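Dear support,

I submitted the protein below through the web form. The confirmation email said the job was done, but the results page showed an empty box. After a refresh the structure appeared. I'm attaching both so you can tell me whether what I see now is the final result or a partial one.
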Amino acid sequence: MKGIILAGGSGSRLYPITISVSKQLLPVYDKPMIYYPLSVLMLAGIREILFITTPQDQKAFQKLLGNGADLGCNFEYAIQDEPKGLAEAFTIGEEFIGKEKVALILGDNIFYGNGFGNLLRSKVDVDGASIFAYPVKDPERYGVVEFDDNKKVKSIEEKPKVPKSKYAIPGLYFYDNKVVEYAKQVKPSARGEKEISTINQMYMEAGKLEVGVMTRGMSWFDTGTVESLDDATEFIRVLQNRQSTLIGCIEEVALIHKFIGKDKLESAIDKYEKSKYGDYLRNLLA
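What the results page shows now:
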């Protein structure tokens, strides 16, 4: 399975913070936001990853992440000129995806939970589509999934004014290769965007959509607003300081999954110099 991180958009809900910098490069406590979704794909065992950015931000992402070799991965980059919807990621990334299955994660989404890595790795051989549902107070901000009495998916709507349930669909999706064909069929919605909910509806109608409800042990943050960005930062700060472990440490994930050896970790330590992040890697090496 290959992976795509969609890190485009203007981040207008965070203005003036994001006028001169990509939202996905903002700090979430001690790391750039992009480290968190990247670590999720790496936890799933995915090593070939495409970053889709705006034209003006691509060089900054390349400076931060390079070609992925330092993490035992292969990173490629593509441009989304305008925010035309999540479904466009699969047509932009068609050549990159090739004949493989693909996972898509949004660059401003943060996930954490016990057993999360095992859950991710169970999805990489998906037959059809596998997405998640998470109960929220403001489902109108998201794609919303409605279940029937037997917990089977009844409907999927994108940012409905009157949501039919409290279950939002987080920005993490696993698809087989048919997603590219489906993405080409998606027409812009009334909002002028190619909605990923339309793709999910196609899989649902074909009887190939699996929706798992995230348990209470799982945490999800969509950092698209100032309040949610602040919540995510505080969550990471408290958890890391209590547990003395880093969330979203991409070098640690690479080492644990044997993408890299100790030599690459030593090089990363030199790169981070005297920062607390670098100190954490030194202790990890020791």
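Response: this is the final, complete result; the empty box was a page-load delay. The first strand starts at residue 2 and ends at 7.
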